[in-house]
Design goal:
This protein has five helices and 16 strands. It is α+β, with helices and mostly antiparallel strands and 256 residues long.
Length: 256
């Protein structure tokens, strides 16, 4: 033990210790600066804001900054086609040179979807179903039916739809719904002597429909022709019909 302590006091030990310390410091110094060089510490840039720009504008910005990009696409009906909808990383994120920026572009071509089976389902059920298919509810009209707010018919572009029909994503679907009053009855109006337009107005107020129209004799003035017969007709035994019942009429230029 005494020899070891004596050795620690020698000049040779002190020189070896100093050399070892310098060696360790040199290794750490070299490793530190090599790592900084390899990772380009402190060198980089902020990602520009690209959302809302056209695809060409976004690409130009990225290329000017030396950044790479990859593109994906979605379809959003309410957004202009060809613009950047999303980006990753977000704007003002600090990244290294040559980093890949992922862009999501709104495509101009709407993908097609199959129309789901929504007939006889409630409006509350139908709304999320249509949204899940990328479709929207357009106009809603009501028709006399015992079921309230239940889909009786779905239309697109004025034509009825059936399950499986192909539609562009984002299409607006017009719905005919039941008003829940199909079993209610209303008084039969007396249409005799009225013109067709007057009858239509009267039936609308009574929540009835204009049915088939026939003509008696030669009609020289259809606007002024009057109703000489209606079915069903108001009588002692029949005074009421269900809401929505069609009333058939016969027009003639000769009044009874």
């Amino acid at each position: 033990m005494s020899k070891f302590i004596t050795y620690l006091k020698t000049k040779s030990f002190r020189n070896n210790l100093i050399a070892a310390i310098f060696t360790v410091v040199a290794i750490l110094f070299i490793a530190f600066f090599s790592l900084r060089y390899y990772t380009k510490h402190g060198q980089g840039l902020n990602v520009p804001a690209l959302k809302g720009l056209s695809f060409n504008q976004a690409v130009s910005k990225l290329e000017d900054l030396g950044l790479r990009y990859e593109v994906d696409s979605v379809y959003i009906m309410d957004k202009p086609p060809g613009i950047v909808i999303d980006q990753d990383p977000d704007a003002n994120t600090f990244v290294k040179d040559n980093r890949t920026i992922y862009l999501t572009i709104n495509t101009a071509q709407a993908p097609n979807v199959k129309f789901p089976d929504i007939e006889s389902k409630s409006l509350r059920e139908v709304q999320p179903t249509l949204e899940s298919f990328g479709l929207k509810i357009g106009d809603t009209t009501y028709k006399a039916d015992v079921a309230k707010d239940v889909v009786l018919q779905a239309n697109f572009g004025g034509r009825p739809l059936k399950p499986g029909d192909i539609l562009p994503k984002g299409s607006r679907i017009d719905l005919v719904l039941g008003d829940g009053r199909g079993n209610e009855e209303v008084d039969i109006p007396n249409l005799l002597g009225l013109t067709k337009d007057e009858a239509r107005f009267s039936l609308k107020g009574a929540m009835l429909m204009l049915g088939n129209i026939t003509y008696e004799g030669t009609i020289t003035d259809s606007a002024n022709a009057v109703i000489v017969m209606q079915t069903p007709v108001l009588s002692d035994t029949l005074t009421k019909v269900k809401i929505g019942t069609p009333i058939n009429i016969t027009l003639s230029n000769k009044q009874n």
